[in-house]
Amino acid sequence: MSAPLLFAGDPHRNFAPIIRACLDLPAGTLIIVGDCDCPAPLPSILAPIIAAGWSVRWILGNHDTETEAAYDHLVTACPDGDLGLRVQTIGGLRIAGLPGVFRPRVWYPRAEAPGESIEPPRYETRAAFLASLRPGEAWRGGLPLWHRDTIFPEDVARLAQERFDVLVTHEAPTSHEHGFAVIDQLARSGGAAWVVHGHHHRSYTGTLTGGVSVRGLAMAEPWVFPGC
Fold first, then answer.
1. Fewest 10 Å CB contacts: which of 40, 109, 160, 212?
2. Closest CA to 176 of 199, 153, 150, 149
């Protein structure tokens, strides 16, 4: 059996089902699709599976930037696990991570009501957004904490230049009623066979136009990638 690739839905502080699932399998790689909301440093929470040989990857969700503690327990405590805006080869698969959520102050590429048009991005880049901030809005010399997980157009453009087999996102594609077509487009441009996402806490499978498979994960739901 090859090393398993296990995806986990938003833990929201409940890591017990994820730890149990990992310990029931040979050591492999765990990928968390956002909203850890860590009550302690992630390496200490996942110490039993790390000791068993598991590697850990994660992307940011919106709850990971609600407090400095949640942010530091994840981003500062486990920087090597950050899959956001990267493509990494894991178990022979190229896996891309698109962290965070869309926010109207920056970019919200979906009509908010039937018949409404989609607003263009207000800011294409973090640099442009930073230049617009009022005194006191910056945090630790950069983006406000609340926007550390905001998706910018430059993020999608960056990943669209890559090729990957699996796209891991916090936001959903259009297989979910609250999903975004821009994620569908990114998956197709990268040649992805799968999109795996969290955020909406629903366990389901779907298919996008073009044949891209989708797996939405419920809260703290472990899912072993097929063939691993």
1. 40
2. 199
Instruction: Report yes or no: 90 and 62 within 8 Å, Cβ to Cβ.
Output: no
CATH at residue 156? 3.60.21.10
Domain assignment of residue 139, given as a range: 5-224
Q: Under DSSP, is residue 105 helix (H, G, I), strand (E, B) or coil?
A: coil
- End-to-end distance of the chain based on CA atoms, in angstroms? 7
How many C-beta atoms surround the C-beta of residue 226 within 10 A?
Answer: 9
Cα(12)–Cα(10) distance, integer angstroms: 6
User: What is the count of structural domains for the chain?
Assistant: 1
Mean pLDDT score of the chain, rounded to an integer? 96
Mean pLDDT for the stretch of residues 13-30:
98
The whole-angstrom separation of Cα 47 and Cα 24 is 15
- Exposed e or buried b for every residue in 31-62, given b needs 16+ CB within 10 A? bbbbbbbbeebbeebbeebbeeebbbbbbbbb
**pTM of the predicted model, to two decimals?**
0.96
Instruction: Tell me which long-range contacts 128-132 makes (C-beta under 8 A, separation of at least 24).
Output: none
Over pLDDT 90: what percentage of the chain?
A: 94
Q: Which of 213, 22, 193 is nearest to 94 (CA)?
A: 193
The pair of three-digit structure tokens given for residue 26, joined into one six-digit string: 């040979």
